[in-house]
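sry for the spam today, last one i promise. struct tokens for design, 217 residues
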């Protein structure tokens, strides 16, 4: 009986050891999540319960490219309200490292016929801000700077961006206020399809970015 019991225990321990080895092997082969500029090209890092992005319509303004400045008239329509604003973007120098980026300068410009009530609430949800936008004094322009992270990108079903297959999206990360990085948010433009998009960079920036955009949208 003792010999049989020993053989049974050896068999059980062997099975457990094999199972643990298999689990350990799976863990060691798991890829680490990407980081750095390449990871920022996929801008859909929100929790599933949050909206992945906020899409709006764009129309290139008359003489939309003058002296290297791209100009867009933007509208966001929801719940019977229409928010209107303008965006201007000019490109600067390009870095030629492992992940090339191009610097940009730009600004949001206010439109007097805008009703931003629904837009700001939807932005609050998107940016995971902890409170509604502060209704501070409106400004006519809100300058920003930033970088172009990718061009000719396609947008997938999860609102992520990919170089292959090619698409019509330009993916940008902008900094507010201009010259600093108190707030960061993704601003993506599809000139061909007439679409623009805000997408969250980090919820830590949520309240600040929301209140800055509320000054001009």
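last one done:
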């Amino acid at each position: 009986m003792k010999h049989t019991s020993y053989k049974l225990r050896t068999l059980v321990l062997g099975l457990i050891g094999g199972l643990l080895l298999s689990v350990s092997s799976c863990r060691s082969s798991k890829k680490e999540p990407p980081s750095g500029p390449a990871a920022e090209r996929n801008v859909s890092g929100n929790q599933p319960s949050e909206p992945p992005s906020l899409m709006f319509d764009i129309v290139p303004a008359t003489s939309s490219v003058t002296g290297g400045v791209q100009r867009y008239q933007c509208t966001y329509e929801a719940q019977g309200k229409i928010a209107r604003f303008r965006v201007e973007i000019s490109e600067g120098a390009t870095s030629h490292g492992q992940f090339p980026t191009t610097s940009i300068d730009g600004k949001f410009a206010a439109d007097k016929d805008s009703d931003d009530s629904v837009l700001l609430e939807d932005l609050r949800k998107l940016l995971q801000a902890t409170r509604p936008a502060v209704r501070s004094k409106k400004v006519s322009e809100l300058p920003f700077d930033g970088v172009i992270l990718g061009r000719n990108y396609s947008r997938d079903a999860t609102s992520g961006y990919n170089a292959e297959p090619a698409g019509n999206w330009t993916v940008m990360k902008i900094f507010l206020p201009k010259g600093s990085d108190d707030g960061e948010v993704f601003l993506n433009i599809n000139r061909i399809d007439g679409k623009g998009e805000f997408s969250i960079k980090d919820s830590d920036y949520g309240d600040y970015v929301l209140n800055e955009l509320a000054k001009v949208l």
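Residues 1-39, 41-49 have pLDDT under 50 and may be disordered. ok im logging off now
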